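Q: Can I see a sequence and its folded structure?
A: Here is a first one.
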Amino acid sequence: MKIEETIIKGCYLITPRSFTDNRGSLTKIYHELMFQEMGLDVQFREEYFSVSSKGVLRGLHFQIPPMQHAKCVTCVSGKIFDVVVDLRKNSPTFGKHFCTELDGKTPSLLYVPEGLAHGFVSLEDDSIFLNRSTTVYSPECDRGIHWDSCGIVWPDLDLIISHKDQEMPDFENFNSPF
């Protein structure tokens, strides 16, 4: 696996090796020892996937302490525009964001440390997003910031956004616990 730090400290793009032959391909997206060798000594506690139509925006989500988590995300089919926002008050990139495309045809992962909000928009119908996190979902600790309050230039699509995500507080009105 190849690891590259993004502009957000502790947030990494990871490119796994893929093996292709006449049958198709095989891509290993997690291997505990490889992650440890890259300095990412994490234990994932929950894993889930979502399937989204083109234009579906999910985010910007995170969990507050004591259930904050690191996560590792990827797109296994289709394509997504993936975004993180640094919510860590003492970070030099506090309030800054990083965007990348994750494409099921070109496997890559985004490692998101604790204290970052995360979201994405599906660029194709039936995009499958896979999320692995270090804590389990906690409704009491579930939070978010408004998707359109951080200066992110989202893809020019007719966005489909849940009521919950439309009602999230703006970044400017969010008092970060990180």
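Q: Show me another, different protein.
A: A second, unrelated one:
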Amino acid sequence: MRRYGSAVLLLLVGGAVLRISLFSELYLRYVQAALRPYLVISGSLLILLGLVAAVRGMRQRDHEEHDDHEEHGEHGEEEEGEEAEHDHGHSHSHSHGGPRIAWLLTLPALALLLFPPPALGSYSASREEAQRAAQGVGTFSALPAGKVLDISVAQYSSRAIYDTGHSLKGRTLRMTGFVTHGSNGTWYLTRLLVTCCAADATISKVEIRGDEADGAPQTDSWVTVTGTWIPKGKLGTDGAWPPVLKAARVKQVKEPADPYDKR
């Protein structure tokens, strides 16, 4: 079976990649949507390589069995010669394949296939330092009209910290994210922003205040919060971080298929 180790590993990894990218949207937990075609192509190539490796292993096995049959079918040889040939064949049969411990490499691939890890959440957010958008203080473009404006956590954070035009003032805003907790009962609406993949994720979060914020939801639960902007600190300074929203409504929702934020 050791000769099939590389084939099994390739098939498991390829199957896992296709499972999260071709047959579901789980890949959005790890990379941007634009990378989906590359994942599908990569998974397909791994499957193809695994099948090629399996076929080569089968042909090699048949060839070795044929050689063993010819060796055992010879007559008239001395007993010592037969033993020498047997030892040679025995050592030859064990010279293929790697050490048995190499089979442990299949465990991560099997785990990814059966139990894909969740998207980044509160643990990742708690390890992230307060990171600001790479922009200076200035006037932002006007927000679209509407009674209730849907806005991302990242957009709200940028405008609350940097916008000298105070475009958030007087607007009713609605945002969705997961819950993280601070000290003294403080909780935040949090979202992670990815540029390429989960490895480069950065955090945006908004402190939720008001009567509707009492009784903070459970950590990592997803909520949609509707409310209004509360100015805080001097624009462009650490005192403005994190921005604050006065909640008029907090509604628990399901985790979206794409859990990461947009600028």
